[in-house]
Design goal:
By secondary structure, the protein is mainly β. The chain has three domains: about 140 residues, no CATH class; about 290 residues, Methylamine Dehydrogenase, Chain H (7 Propeller); about 280 residues, Methylamine Dehydrogenase, Chain H. The protein contains ten helices and 56 strands. The strands form 14 sheets. The chain has a four-stranded antiparallel β-sheet with strand order 1-56-55-54. Strands 2-29-28-27 form a four-stranded antiparallel β-sheet. Helix 5 crosses helix 6 and helix 8 crosses helix 9. The longest helix is centred in the first third of the chain and has 21 residues. It is globular. The protein starts with a helix and ends with a strand.
Length: about 750
């Protein structure tokens, strides 16, 4: 639609005219359906709307809501494929909304990352236009982000710590969350807006429950108290004190007049919500109480404990009526079926169990998670149960058959809580990745499946010919990828612990890896054979680097040392001691005469490779130094740190020449472009950034859905490979870089 692009370009220097023109396009919704369909699939319109309206992202997402208008849906000018196309674009924008609100410049990268695999002419044209933008950006070479049309609807960001608990308001339009940042937040589920933050607890907030009328919320905290909040004003109306240890769970009686709390002091307490009085204490568990739920009639409650049991209590008498035994580890969560006849429990033994409340019988065990199950929620009809696990996933189970019907993937860290909307159609999850995610429970079918490692990608290394990349993972495997297609060509198995570091020999025929089993291993890249194992470190090997001649390898370890090895014989030729904490990264100068190391002791050190002498220590970072790379001339080194910055150091003087600020979390990896003019950094803030080395200016950013743990750049200077903590390997291209 050239007319739109031409007019947007003509009005680009006049914001008032531009907004007026965009407004006139909005009016096409009712007057010219065909033309408005073309507008909504036009990248220039999408980009202009996001950049020139105060609430551009949300306003744009709402533009696509015309597809839900019954009159328009029945209009013969529309067809099913057009409706599907608009839903896909809206879905992609909604999935990226939390990123675009902060950084509008990522629009093209986000659309390419989510939509390039859709063989829809309008989508392909939209992406082609997006590719033509003039500013530098990072373009995914494969669809490397979660696609629209699947389970995940959108992500809520704003907490500064793990999100531990969630609860919906009775109308399902808002959700309240509790976090390790000592706060609660009230979110608008339609817009994703953080409407209110509740301050008052002095420690992490672990539990939350809403009163039946939706006007108040009760929270439990590690500060040993419960608090009653006014949902409308955010006022702290009452504090409940009496527990001698952390309050870990809360539940309200059906009439909303009392609240039950579960505590690490091994007890539960019944409180009067109006007076704050402690009316009864329930004693019987011999270890921490993690969970509590009330029967529908409010006469009994069920609790879960670290003592591996569940208990059924009489709320009026305080009597322990029944104990349920069967789990082999702590019981982390409990939920009752709507009829009150069964209870489902979640445990650190990686399973869920279905119990008969009357007999105490274990009726069914649900197996499938690969880590602790932290939370459960039942659908309103009682036919399905959702579980949240420390394996970063949620699962939907059939309660009758025990079948795992669906797995929801998208969180980059432990899932700690889950809640269903009142209509049972959507589920919200809370995670240690500081986010909440809203999922569609009904459709749940993803357009694509991501292939890669099953755990964090710790290291990547490019072959000298630039055609392949090797990745190392916490899943104990190595993979060989085709750099052009992103295809997984070979998997190497043989380590018995996480693979943490990788380096290729100069001829590209061998690769050496360091691992959590305290060893290095040398592999033949062509045959996949493990040719040699290097023993000597007393803790995990976290980094490796080869000398320029390829005859020696230097390793860095959590045992606080570096070691120099003969690659041919496997002999440990020298040990470098001097750091007071873990050695996290290592790099050799181009002449191979010196080695630089980074450490959790907040310093870098320069060593003489021949003598093992510590020649210089670099002070300046305020937290652990995790990554480093040397400039091409070997005169400077760039470091990445837990203090969220990169620093450029003069290797001869030890001077800190420049600090690069822009990341909001730890900088995990750094890499230099082949011309030495730019540096790439990755961070736990889920971003990959490109910087101008001379000026320190941030050139471009790409945001993923999990932390990028490692990165490398090909010899062409524009192709970037980055490993994600989820197990994905990303292939990106720098566009419009001079």
């Amino acid at each position: 639609m050239g007319e739109v692009a031409d007019k947007l370009a003509a009005y680009s220097s006049d914001p008032a005219c531009l907004r007026a023109y965009l407004g006139s396009l909005d009016s096409l919704k009712s007057s010219d359906l065909k033309k408005y369909y073309k507008v909504l699939t036009n990248f220039d319109f999408i980009n202009a709307k996001i950049n020139h309206f105060e609430f551009g992202v949300q306003s744009l997402i709402e533009d696509y809501d015309l597809i839900n208008d019954s009159e328009l849906l029945n209009n013969p000018e529309y067809n099913r494929e057009q409706v599907k196309t608009l839903k896909l674009i809206q879905g992609a924008l909604r999935l990226s909304a939390h990123i675009l609100v902060k950084d509008k410049m990522q629009l093209a990268g986000q659309l390419w990352g989510r939509m390039q695999h859709f063989a829809v002419p309008e989508i392909q044209v939209m992406l082609k236009v997006a590719k033509q933008q003039v500013l530098p950006w990072l373009r995914p070479l494969t669809s490397n982000l979660i696609s629209p049309g699947g389970s995940l609807l959108f992500t809520l960001t704003g907490h500064r710590g793990s999100v531990n608990a969630v609860a919906f308001t009775p109308d399902g339009k808002q959700v309240i969350s509790a976090s390790d940042d000592n706060t609660l937040k009230l979110w608008n589920l339609e817009t994703g807006e953080d409407e209110r933050t509740f301050h008052g607890h002095s420690d992490p907030v672990t539990a939350v429950a809403l009163t039946p009328d939706g006007k108040q919320v009760i929270s439990g905290s590690l500060d040993k108290t419960l608090k009653l909040w006014n949902l409308e004003t955010g006022e702290d109306e009452r504090t409940f004190q009496g527990h001698s240890d952390w309050v870990y769970a809360v539940a309200l009686t059906p009439d909303g007049k009392q609240v039950i709390s579960a505590s690490f002091d091994n007890t539960l307490k019944l409180w009067n919500l109006e007076t704050g009085e402690d009316e009864r204490t329930f004693q019987g568990h011999n270890d921490r109480v993690y969970a509590v739920a009330l029967t529908p009639d409010g006469k009994q409650m069920i609790s879960g404990s670290r003592d591996k049991t569940l208990k059924l209590w009489n709320l009026e008498t305080g009597e322990d009526e029944r104990t349920f035994q069967g789990h082999s580890d702590r019981v982390r969560a409990v939920a009752l079926t709507p009829d009150g006849k069964q209870v489902i429990s979640a445990s650190s033994d990686w399973t869920l169990k279905l119990w008969n409340l009357e007999t105490g019988e274990d009726e069914r065990t649900f197996q499938g998670h690969s880590d602790r199950v932290r939370a459960v929620a039942l659908t309103p009809d009682g036919k399905q149960v959702i579980s949240a696990s420390f394996d970063n996933t949620l699962k939907l189970w059939n309660l009758e058959t025990g079948e795992d019907e669906r797995t929801f993937q998208g969180h980059s860290d432990r899932v700690r809580a889950v809640a269903l909307t009142p209509d049972g159609k959507q589920v919200i999850s809370a995670s240690s990745d500081w986010t909440l995610k809203l999922w569609n429970l009904e459709t749940g079918e993803d357009e694509r499946t991501f292939h890669g490692h099953s755990d964090s990608v710790i290291a990547v290394a490019l072959t000298p010919d630039g055609k392949q990349v090797v990745s190392a993972s916490s899943d104990w495997t190595l993979k060989l990828w085709n750099l052009e297609t992103g295809e997984d060509e070979r998997t190497f198995q043989g380590h018995s612990d996480s693979v943490r570091a990788a380096a290729l020999t100069p001829d590209g025929k061998q690769v050496i890896f360091g691992s959590g089993e305290n060893t290095l291993k040398l592999w033949n890249l062509e045959t996949g054979e493990n040719e040699r194992t290097f023993h000597g470190h007393s803790d995990s090997v976290i980094a490796v680097a080869l000398t320029p001649d390829g005859n020696q390898v230097i390793s860095a370890s959590f045992d606080k040392t570096l070691k120099l090895w003969n690659l041919k014989t496997g002999e440990n030729e020298r040990t470098f001691q001097g750091h007071s904490d873990w050695v996290t990264a290592v790099a050799l100068t181009p002449d191979g005469k010196q080695v630089i190391s980074a450490s959790d002791d907040n310093t870098l050190k320069l060593w003489n490779l021949e003598t093992g002498e510590d020649e210089r220590t670099f002070h300046g970072h305020s937290d652990s130094v995790i990554a480093l790379v040397l400039t091409l001339n070997g005169k400077q080194v760039i470091s990445g740190s837990d203090d969220n910055t990169l620093k450029l150091w003069n290797l001869e003087t030890g001077e800190d020449e420049r600090t690069f600020q822009g990341h909001s979390d730890s900088v995990i990896a750094v890499a230099l472009t082949p011309d030495g003019k730019q540096v790439i950094s990755t961070s736990y803030d889920n971003t990959l950034k490109l910087w101008n080395l001379e000026t320190g200016e941030e050139i471009a950013t790409f945001t993923g859905e999990a932390p990028f743990v490692c990165c490398a750049i090909a010899a062409d200077g524009v192709t970037i490979v980055a490993g994600e903590s989820s197990g994905r390997v990303h292939f990106l291209r720098l566009e419009n870089i001079e």
